[in-house]
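wait is this the right file?? whatever heres the structure
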């Protein structure tokens, strides 16, 4: 209900006190139910509405969610008996004060349970959108930009639980994980990334001490590319700006890779800044955590390197944040792009001549990616776009990228030399990464 009302995000709620108080089994079930309903909501509503006596009737949110929960269990979970799924949804309707509607919930879900499954065609944007429970406008864009096959892969990735990926401080940590009964596999791209196959990774001392960290592999790659811009081990970088630093995963990689540099990590939210300070505390005064709006930075020529990992629509993270598809509207993209242009402009001003800015998003939308970079350059910024092809080779030579990862990234370079990671092509979230250099 909180997600439906736009009051919070599923990720925050599922890590909250109420869920943590549950047994491990119930916690896993709660997570599966919430994320599963959010991922399949568009198709669930379509299937439920077809079984209503008045298909266009507007249902109270509590009843709609009870129907979604029941239908999701009946159609997508095979270990919950149909009677249990139906009875629990009927009880939810009653507990919400809709006793008269509980009979309708019971009847509709019994019909869902007895109706044969129908395979929907996915050979068009509209069919794919419904089959994979994504907004039609969103899928139509992806088909236009990337083609039907890529759009299908993006949608299917958005319907699955993302891979649990960790960053390890050293190969010895992997042995610790094995001793703790945690099985991992190498990452797709980075030598420091591991995909968790089984086991509870947040329990061992290595996690509690920060020697392994939960972080999507695409997110790690953004920071690795930024760190590589200063030459071997960042030897030419003394001052680094992280414009939108929270939650701090990329900041930590920069601090570890370029150990002789001082950093300024900005965050506009006081609450997130407090969490950022706590996470970066081990680096002492080498990292200044600053409450600041990245669009209003006043520094000019102060830094050697800036990371502008900007707030965005997040359409590359729909598997991790499924409610984005229900909240985002096409008209939101120009507003996002306006702020992104302002952040990139401020970051370019903040670096010295010859200094570089890594601009990145976890969006799949061109308005937030290449169009933002092109607009800033067209507005008269004395800067140029630098191909990331050389960065890939540097990271490969320094042992940061795997050879197969480097090969696959070369195939993901755009005509302008930026990187675009599409979900489904990789197991990571979707990312766009561009390198811009300030000119005299």
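ok assuming it is, sequence goes like this
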């Amino acid at each position: 209900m909180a997600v439906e009302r736009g009051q919070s995000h599923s990720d925050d709620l599922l890590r909250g006190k109420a869920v943590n108080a549950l047994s491990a089994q119930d916690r896993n079930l709660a997570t599966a139910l919430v994320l599963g309903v959010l991922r399949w909501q568009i198709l669930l509503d379509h299937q439920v509405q077809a079984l209503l006596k008045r298909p266009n009737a507007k249902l109270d949110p509590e009843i709609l969610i009870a129907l979604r929960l029941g239908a999701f269990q009946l159609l997508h979970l095979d270990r919950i008996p149909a009677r249990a799924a139906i009875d629990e949804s009927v009880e939810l309707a009653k507990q919400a004060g809709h006793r008269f509607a509980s009979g309708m919930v019971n009847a509709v879900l019994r019909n869902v349970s007895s109706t044969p499954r129908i395979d929907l065609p996915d050979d068009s944007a509209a069919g794919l959108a419904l089959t994979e429970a994504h907004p039609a406008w969103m899928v139509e864009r992806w088909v236009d930009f990337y083609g039907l096959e890529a759009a299908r892969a993006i949608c299917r990735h958005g319907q699955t639980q993302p891979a649990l990926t960790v960053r390890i401080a050293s190969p010895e940590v992997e042995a610790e994980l094995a001793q703790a009964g945690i099985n991992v596999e190498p990452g797709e791209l980075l030598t420091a990334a591991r995909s968790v196959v089984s086991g509870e990774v947040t329990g061992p001392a290595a996690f509690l001490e920060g020697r392994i960290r939960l972080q999507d592999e695409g997110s790690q790659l953004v920071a690795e590319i930024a760190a590589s811009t200063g030459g071997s081990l960042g030897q030419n970088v003394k001052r680094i700006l992280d414009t939108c630093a929270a939650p701090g995963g990329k900041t930590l990689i920069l601090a570890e890779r370029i150990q002789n540099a001082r950093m300024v990590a900005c965050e506009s939210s006081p609450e997130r800044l407090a969490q950022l300070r706590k996470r970066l505390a081990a680096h002492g005064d080498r990292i200044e955590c600053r409450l600041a709006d990245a669009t209003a930075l006043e520094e000019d020529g102060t830094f050697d390197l800036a990371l502008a990992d900007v707030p965005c629509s997040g359409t590359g993270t729909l598997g991790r944040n499924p409610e984005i598809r229900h909240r985002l509207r096409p008209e939101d993209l120009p507003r996002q792009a306006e702020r992104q242009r302002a952040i990139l402009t401020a970051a370019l001003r903040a670096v010295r001549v010859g200094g570089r800015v890594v601009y990145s998003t976890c969006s799949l939308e061109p308005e937030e990616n290449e169009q933002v970079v092109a607009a800033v350059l067209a507005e008269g910024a004395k800067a140029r776009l630098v191909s990331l092809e050389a960065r890939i080779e540097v990271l490969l030579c320094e042992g940061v990228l795997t050879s197969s990862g480097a090969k696959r990234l070369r195939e993901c370079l755009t005509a302008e030399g930026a990187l675009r990671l599409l979900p489904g092509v990789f197991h990571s979230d979707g990312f766009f990464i561009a390198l811009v250099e300030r000119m005299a």
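The chain has 19 helices and twelve strands. so i think its the right one actually
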